[in-house]
Amino acid sequence: MLGYLSRLAAWMVFMAALILWPAGTLAYPAGWVFIGLFAASGLAGILWLSKYSPSLLRERMASPLQRDQKPWDRVWLLLFMVVFLGWIVFMSWDAARTGFTAIPVWVQALGVVAIVVNGAGTWWTFRENAFAAPVVKIQEGQQVIDTGPYAIVRHPMYTSALFLFIGVPLLLGSWLGLAVSALLILGLAWRAVHEERTLRAELKGYDGYAARVRYRFVPFVW
User: Fold this and answer.
1) Percentage of the chain with pLDDT > 70?
2) Domain limits of the chain?
3) pLDDT-derived band at 2, boundaries 50, 70, 90
4) What does the pLDDT look like over 105-147, one tens digit per residue?
5) Which of 54, 91, 103, 149 is the most buried (most CB within 10 A)?
6) Around 133, how many Cα atoms within 13 Å sit in the side-chain half-sphere?
7) DSSP summary character for residue 139
């Protein structure tokens, strides 16, 4: 547990540097709200998973590049992490460039709500699926999950991420960051399609599940 908490602390210090350094000031309330939200959600996730799903906690805290991971996913995840971190830096810089006034406070509050929805959706996914690893691989004993959010969409974690990609630029105050969100969403969609090829080929029962639950991200859309 202490090791996980130490990693969370180090990650939050790193994220704080990514946000505050390009902003050029510590007087960035939205940046501090963002840091606080992620610290709180990270701590809550560690505490809940340590009690109810320790194996999933180990998976979520493991290296993003793993031996059993599909090779294409290693490349995708590395590129995605670079773009994501660059996105955070860019939005902080962009918000400072506009004097932190480009987005009204009430819209920033909507961004907070979207980030909270992402956290709730992530928790719901974790509660239903102890195999929700951050990398594409088939785990020992893995089986198809079709309850909870998986009865609505096939990739509920990605659905939750849509709220994150919209909420973060709104909170941080960057309309241009919201435009970049479209690229992140497209990247996530590409991964979902390729991930499903692995699931259909290697996970028993996934074809039948995909026939029952037709939509990947958004019901009645895709």
Assistant:
1) 100
2) 63-212
3) confident
4) 999 999 999 999 999 999 999 999 999 989 998 888 899 999 9
5) 91
6) 23
7) P
Spatial distance between the Cα atoms of 25 and 6, rounded to a whole number of angstroms: 26
Q: How far apart are CA 155 and CA 136, in angstroms?
A: 13
Please give the structure tokens belonging to residue 38: 């992620």
Rounded CA-CA distance 83/58 in Å is 25
The C-alpha atoms of residue 71 and residue 185 are separated, in whole angstroms, by 21
168: tokens are 């973060």
Secondary element (H or E) of residue 22? helix 2-23
Calculate the alpha carbon distances from 36 to 29, 31, 33, 208 in Å.
10, 9, 5, 42
Per-chain mean pLDDT for the chain: 94
The CA distance from 139 to 220, in Å, is 30
Q: What is the pTM of this model?
A: 0.93
Measured CA to CA, the distance from residue 79 to residue 186 in angstroms comes to 13
Residue type present at position 11:
W
